[in-house]
Structure formats: C-alpha cells, structure tokens
Amino acid sequence: MEKEENILSLHSPSTKHPWKMTSDSGDFSRLTVIKTENARQRRLKCTCQTVTISENTSTGVDKDRDLLLNGSKTCKQNDDVQTLTCRSSHGVVSVIGRRREMEDAVKVGLGFMVKGGEKFDFYGVYDGHGGSGVAEECKERLHKVLVEEIVVEEGGNGIDWGRTMKRSFEKMDEEVSRGRLGEEMVGSTAVVAVVGNGKVVVANCGDSRAVLSRGGVAVALSFDH
C-alpha cells in the first residue's frame, strides 16, 4: 500500500500504467486511465485525499490545522469545526464554422441530482453529425436518463458509476433509434462529466474529448472511438 500523500488521485480499477501529471502546487498527482476490451466502456474514478495545511489563529501560520477536501476543516487549537464553501464555475463556447446549422449542443445541470445528501453537477457536450436532432435530444434527455439508471454498488456503499454510465448511454441510444430521430445518417458524439462527492466521473461516445488541466498540462480523461 502506498503512503498517503497530498495529492488528488484519479484512477481506474485495474490499470498497470499510471500517468504522471504536474499539480498546481508543483507536486505530482497520479493519473491512471484504463482502456477496456470493449471500446465503449470507460471507467474513471477521482479520489480526494486529505491535505494538511497550516494556520494559527494567534500568530498567523503554523502546522496545526487539517483541511479535508470533503468541505470541512478543524482547528485543533480551539476544536472549532467550520464549513468551507466550494463553488464551481463553467463557460461555454461553440463555433458554427462553415456549416449551415449549429450541430453542437451543451448541457450544464448544477445540482441535477441529490444522492445520500450530496449534490451532483452534470456537464455534457454533444457534437451532432448530419444534423442537430440527435445532439439536441441527448441534451434534453441524457442527464435525466442517468438519474433513472443509477446503479448502487454491492453493499450499498455508493454509486457504481461504470455500470450506471454504460446503462445510461445504451438507453439513450435505444431512445434515439426507436424515435423519429433514428435516421440512418444522423447521430451525435457525447462526452459527459458528473462532479460531486469528491469525485469526477467521465464517460464518452465518439471523438468528443474530456481533459484535466494541471499546472497548464492537459491530461486526457477519455479515449476517441
């Protein structure tokens, strides 16, 4: 077992080849991504570990406070427990280029679901092919399908994100195929990220990509199909 370090660790369950990336602080975080035998299955977990920082309420700085990434902090000097407020921000840009119709679609759902008292945010990018119909349908439905298809891990300790994402993408594909949008030459890519409870879960279909920025270095979180 590795010694716990002050890092944010992104990993998949069974890979043997971790990638290194530079964190904002100059330390190194370990990123491991797995490409499964079935190219349509991608699994990614983000594990937040404890980081120790320093603070002293009387002199300004020492090493007597632990900050937990789950949003709480404890000051050993007075045993007070305070709550940290974490805010996320996002932005969107899309360029139509030479196409007659904008075929891209974006969905941002802040607090789109609550599980176990934790709020989760949803981010989705859909690149339509042969028209915007399928991309727009994914924009309106995929995040809702994901909530419907949540799979709980064995023992009920959390969400099985790998199975949940797989089932959600399959159901979305079925809906589009049997609906009026199921035209042979119309389709869409999809790359989605769910953020919450100290985790980032990424899934994709097609060649739309997700990347993580650390110290100005872009690290791939998805594989093109």
Automatic annotation (TrEMBL):
Enumerate the GO terms in the molecular function aspect: metal ion binding; protein serine/threonine phosphatase activity
Name its co-factor(s).
Answer: Mg(2+); Mn(2+)
| Alphabetized CDD domains for the sequence | PP2Cc (cd00143)
**Pfam families, from UniProt?**
PP2C
Q: Where is the PPM-type phosphatase domain?
A: 89-225
What UniProt keywords are attached to this protein's entry? Answer: Hydrolase, Magnesium, Manganese, Metal-binding, Protein phosphatase
| InterPro entries per record | PP2C (IPR015655), PP2C_BS (IPR000222), PPM-type-like_dom_sf (IPR036457), PPM-type_phosphatase-like_dom (IPR001932)
Ranges for region Disordered: 1-23
Name the source's superkingdom: Eukaryota
Similarity comment: family membership: Belongs to the PP2C family.
Full protein name? protein-serine/threonine phosphatase
